[in-house]
């Protein structure tokens, strides 16, 4: 999977203030897809496309897993 694919998937996620749970679940889904497809560094790719540190992304993914 490529950076462009991740950008496209992120653009499809809900962006409204009331959609935080759905957005977090979507991030987790994208991460799991990258991981399942054998991407060597799914966390780094996703964090890079989002423009956030990987540590922050980990917090978001953990929150999504708890919801």
TrEMBL record:
<protein>
    <submittedName>
        <fullName>Uncharacterized protein</fullName>
    </submittedName>
</protein>
């Amino acid at each position: 999977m490529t950076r462009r694919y991740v950008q496209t998937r992120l653009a499809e996620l809900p962006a409204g203030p009331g959609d935080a749970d759905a957005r977090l679940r979507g991030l987790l889904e994208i991460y799991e897809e990258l991981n399942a497809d054998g991407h060597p560094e799914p966390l780094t790719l996703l964090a890079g496309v989002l423009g956030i540190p990987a540590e922050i992304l980990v917090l978001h993914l953990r929150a999504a897993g708890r919801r």
